[in-house]
Design a protein that fits this description.
The complex is a heterodimer.
Chain A lengths: L1 E10 L2 E11 L4 E5 L6 H9 L6 E6 L2 E2 L5 H7 E4 L11 H6 L10 H11 L15 H17 L6 E6 L7 H13 L5 E6 L3 H7 L2 E6 L2 E6 L1 H4 L2 H8 L3 E4 L8 E4 L5 H4 L4
Helix pairs in contact in A: 4-5
Chain B lengths: L2 H32 L7 H9 L10 H36 L11 H15 L4 H4 L3 H23 E2 L2 E2 L1 H24 L3 H12 L7 H19 L2 H7 L3 H6 L4 H23 L5 H13 L3 H25 L8 H18 L1 H5 L1
Helix pairs in contact in B: 1-3, 1-14, 3-9, 3-12, 3-13, 3-14, 4-6, 4-7, 4-8, 4-12, 6-7, 6-12, 9-12, 13-14
The chains are: A alpha/beta, B mainly alpha.
Chain lengths: 266, 352
């Protein structure tokens, strides 16, 4: 389990992440949503170990994050960045193989192939990474981080995704989140920063709604994805139709000219 | 393809490429031993190393002397310095995530040169310094190189990524500063120091002797090994510093190894042979164009290819205007500078 307790992070004396507590359990997909500047990426970087929390504690499987060496931490948590640029002409497959770094090389090839087929990147494995489209690059990065956590172990593993679907078409967005939700069967806890509220509603088990560095709401989709919460956090009229018959929640923001007619900002 | 076979193939491929380069280096080395102002036939070169098979030709002591005391140490020094510059260039490029990094361009070499000059000019005033001899020169060059490496890194990096234009500008600034301070040191130099400096600054691999070879080999052996051992970390760093950390790389340790290792081998090379430019820029690039970006090949390959390049350059320097000699730095610059311009033109593609 990944547990954060009252963590804070300051930039120029201003708390960007303010007293956030959360738990990530194996078999759960947690989505972080919130407006720009709410502290989503900073929270993810704190959890990943990039930033050191100014206050509070982060524990991976009961052990404080500061007590992990980079190599040991990499064995149980992988992070997919928002953007990745490569300076040198690496091939797609070489990029994915970097995910093996923390594992040692045994049976790496099989693993890489499996993950690349799953993420539909196997077809362009020999192309240069730099020549790919934005969405293809993201899938390659996803494949790389999946390699890191794919193999099953006794320990719970953690996958942190920072806007994994930002430059993908609809089908690939769903494919990525589907893969992420499938990982839940593998003793893996997934955390994703998501911009698309509908995607969060459709795939998340737990939703964390951030506003100005604080958790405004935390809980199941039904609890958090309610019109009044979303309107308060985003300061914009948002309509939510509850899901039924296995359909996900349907969340619709309304155009600005509609505001005065039917809805009020909470 | 069978997955296990694919890994095996990749390893064999790396070995094959490195083996070919080694072979090329050996052939070039033998060629370089026979050619020069004083021609020594191949059969006699063989005789010196393998002993007499009763070929019947008599080896005169002069030939033996030229070969063992002049040409062989010179060849070995050229190989070691070329390899050192190549591998330092490749490692620094990987660390800075920037294909335009080169010990000479970013001011590492000029930092080494400045401190070497300071040692030459002022070292004789302090007996404890002059007692250090060549080691003192190397130590000073190392400190200067390290200082400039850190300065360039600080000046040009933002959020863990170096900006190409800032990096080049930082190099320009540091080169200018080092040049000015070298000038200032020379202004205060006495005649003896001035003569020493002149010899050193002209000093290409022409002044090679066994002492220099052993010094270069002794000091650069360990750092080169350390740098080669960082190839996986460098591969991970190509995606980014935080990404490399996420993959389990101890980024600070890797940085330290590479910065200190590079400063040590470049500093030693500069102290022994003066500044020889562009080897560290050209070599890793050619390898990437030919064999891809995997540092498992690029890093050790840069050692061999750098050795090949400098041996070739030295051969040209010795034979083109024989019996006179051209400084080797001129040759590498004539080859390297146009290559640098070509890289600048293509920098957009490199950035992909």
């Amino acid at each position: 389990m990944l547990e954060a307790k009252d963590i804070q992070y300051f930039i120029l004396g201003r708390p960007v992440v303010n007293k956030v507590s959360l738990k990530l359990k194996a078999g759960q997909l947690t989505a972080i949503v919130g407006p720009n500047g709410a502290g989503k990426s900073s929270l993810l970087k704190l959890l990943a170990g990039d930033y050191k929390a100014g206050a509070g504690a982060i524990n991976y499987n009961g052990k404080c994050i500061q007590n992990y060496r980079p190599k040991d931490l990499a064995k149980i948590r992988a992070v997919m960045p928002q953007h990745s640029q490569l300076t040198f002409p690496f091939k797609v497959k070489e990029v994915v193989e970097l995910g093996l770094l923390s594992l040692g090389l045994a049976h790496g090839e099989q693993l890489v192939m499996e993950v690349m087929k799953e993420t539909q990147t196997w077809a362009f494995r020999d192309r240069l990474y730099g020549a790919l489209s934005g969405g293809e690059k993201q899938r390659v990065q996803l494949a790389r981080v999946l390699v890191q956590v794919w193999a099953g172990t006794d320990q719970t593993k953690f996958l942190l995704l920072d806007e994994p679907t930002s430059s993908m078409d609809i089908a690939h967005q769903h494919q990525v989140l589907h893969i992420a939700s499938q990982l839940k069967r593998k003793n893996i806890a997934v955390l994703a920063v998501l911009h698309d509220l509908n995607m969060a509603a459709a795939y998340a088990d737990q939703v964390i709604l951030l506003k100005e560095g604080r958790i405004y709401q935390q809980g199941s989709v039904d609890e958090v994805m309610a019109s009044q919460h979303l309107e308060h956090v985003f300061e914009h009229p948002i309509m939510v139709r509850n899901g039924y018959d296995g359909m996900p929640h349907f969340i619709q923001s309304l155009p600005v000219y509609q505001q005065n007619r039917t809805y009020k900002i909470a | 393809m069978n997955p296990k076979l694919a890994i095996a193939n990749k390893i064999t491929h790396t070995k094959l490429v490195l083996g070919t380069m080694l072979l090329l280096l050996l052939i070039l080395g033998i060629l370089s031993l026979t050619l020069g102002a004083f021609h020594i036939p191949l059969s006699k070169v063989g005789q010196v190393f393998m002993g007499d098979w009763g070929v019947g030709e008599n080896l005169n002591p002069q030939e033996k002397n030229v070969l063992l005391q002049i040409r062989l140490p010179r060849l070995l020094l050229a190989m070691l310095v070329g390899g050192a510059l190549g591998i330092a260039g490749a490692a620094l490029q990987g660390l800075f995530r920037n294909p335009l990094v080169e010990p000479g361009l970013i001011g590492v070499s000029s930092g080494s040169a400045l401190f070497a000059v300071i040692f030459i000019v002022f070292g004789s005033s302090f007996t404890f310094l002059s007692a250090l001899g060549k080691f003192g020169l190397v130590a000073f060059a190392f400190i200067g190189g390290l200082l400039n490496t850190f300065l360039v890194y600080r000046l040009s990096s933002q959020a863990g990524k170096t900006d190409i234009s800032l990096l080049i500008l930082a190099g320009v600034a540091l080169n200018a500063l080092a040049g000015a301070l070298i000038g200032l040191s020379i202004f205060y130099a006495d005649d003896a120091a001035l003569r020493n400096f002149t010899f050193w600054s002209l000093g290409d691999v022409g002044g090679a002797n066994w002492e220099k070879v052993w010094l270069m080999l002794g000091i650069s052996f360990l750092p080169i090994g350390l740098i080669i051992g960082q190839y996986r970390a460098l591969n991970a760093l190509a995606i980014g510093e935080s990404e490399a950390y996420h993959m389990g790389v101890d980024v600070q340790r890797t940085k330290l190894f590479i910065l200190i290792g590079s400063a040590l081998i470049v500093g030693t090379a500069v102290a022994l042979t003066g500044t020889i430019g562009f080897v560290g820029l050209v070599v890793p690039h050619l390898l990437r164009i030919l064999y891809g970006a995997d540092h498992g090949l690029v890093i050790p390959g840069s050692f061999f290819a750098g050795a090949i390049l400098l041996t070739l350059a030295d051969l040209l320097a010795r034979t083109m205007v024989a019996p006179a000699e051209m400084p080797i730095g001129i040759i590498t610059a004539i080859l390297g500078a146009p290559f640098f311009i070509y890289l600048l033109i293509n920098v957009k593609q490199i950035r992909a």
